Amino acid sequence: MASFSSIGIGSGMDTGAMLEQIKAAEQMRLKPYTLMQNTYKSKISAWGQISSSMSALQGSVKKLTNDAFNTLSVSTNKAFTAKAGTGASADTHAVHIEQLAVAHKLKTDGKPESDVPLGEQNGATRTITITNGDGKETKVTLEDDETSLDQIAKAINKADGGAKASVQRTNEGYQLVLSAKETGTDGEMTVKVDGDTALGDILDTSSGGDDGSGNGDNMKLVTAAQNARLTVDGMDYERSTNNISDIITDVTLELKAKSETTEPEQLTLTRDNSAIKTSVKDFVEKYNALLKLTSAASKYVPNDTSGLKDEDVANKNGDSGALMGDSTLRGMVGELRTAVNGIYGDSDADVTALADLGIKIDAATGQMTLNETKLDSAIADNPDSIADMFMGRGEKEGLATKLSTIVEKYVGDPDTKSEGIIKTSTEGLDEQVKIMQTQLDKTQKLIDAQVERYRIQFQNLDSTMSKMNSLSNQMGSLLASL
């Protein structure tokens, strides 16, 4: 409600100021609801930060359940490159590339123009069928005015099948060039025209293209379809593609060139221990960031009771954490701290706890301190034991797998689209914020109505006083005239 101007002209009282004072006093009725709403909002904000930090820790922990201990360094080779997945094993392989897979390519004889129809003008339609070696078919149907080289290429590309087409201007004239999208014999093309003999005499090809041997094909061979051939560890393989992932388990070979000599190249896959260190350091960083947030959210600062009377109630200190005393937060932190202080793996193993990796945990704050020198030594001496501690072995649970379970319990898992306890808690707080807002709106309407009643009463009072003053003046004048 806007501020009031003085309306006490008749009464002589500053009723505007009086109404402002009444309004200010009435507005105090909103304070409890506003304080409660702000408290709920602060809790939602705190949980949001903690949830985000928990998700970051979740990503770090997931690396310690797999990627950190299955990352391999791959040797550099001339004739091929290799990419190792998490299922690959550290090993060496002898690889020799005999030939690369090549895509089939055909071209027509040269034509004087590219936009002149080449088919019969009989009012009928004709169909061009391109069949690849893997059985994929590309069919296009053309009208009389759609049989130029340009129109044929456009129709084939629009069909988006196993071949792509282009028109090239050469010394022989304009030529339609067909290229298989797949390399090797899987992409080898045959071309058949139905419903147009003239166009068939230009395109029909069933034996890989005219290579000069008089095989009867109407399109010329540019590049023959060719499979890749290679030898891995003394065994011969033939594939239609240069990207091969079914020879070495979870390793993709990308063939680049024919081997320069008859001797094979050595493909070496070695465990990348630097990935372990990087993952452990990231875990410590993410865990400490989370504990810092939870400590701030649960911090208790004693209330300031100075100057309070016996009957007064002290309010919560504003420096206390938004989630001070929250049982969900207390339980979550307790589970995490119990997990990181646990013993994992075989009892006689060299690494069974974070302390064996040079990670010291402060008993008061829960913060971790990492000794990188000790971590480097542990990684160099016992990488498998470290893996067992984090990932577990057999029925024995590892630290990372235990932490994954705890984190998922509270923040859910984006992979399985599950929701955690924090989401449920914040949804309840959101509902409380809405309830408080409803109560604030309702109370504000009552306050506005109450102030408006006072305004009308003051206005009536002022009007009455004004009339009485006028009557008094009239009577004074009358008496004075007697």
Description:
By secondary structure, the chain is an alpha+beta fold. It folds into three domains: 12-71 and 272-299 and 320-460; 72-100 and 227-271, no CATH class; 103-223, Immunoglobulin-like (Sandwich), CATH 2.60.40. 42% of the residues lie in helices and 20% in strands. It is built from eleven helices and 19 strands. It has helices at residues 15-27, 31-63, 67-70, 149-159, 197-203, 273-298, 327-340, 372-381, 383-391, 399-411, 421-481, and strands at residues 72-74, 80-84, 91-99, 103-107, 126-132, 137-142, 163-170, 173-183, 189-194, 220-223, 228-232, 235-239, 243-244, 251-255, 265-271, 359-361, 368-370, 392-393, 396-397. The strands form six sheets. Strands 1-15-3-11-12 form a five-stranded antiparallel β-sheet, with no helix packed on it. A hairpin with a 2-residue loop joins strand 11 (228-232) and strand 12. The longest helix has 61 residues, at 421-481. It is flat, with a radius of gyration of 42 Å. It starts with 14 loop residues before the first helix and ends with a helix.
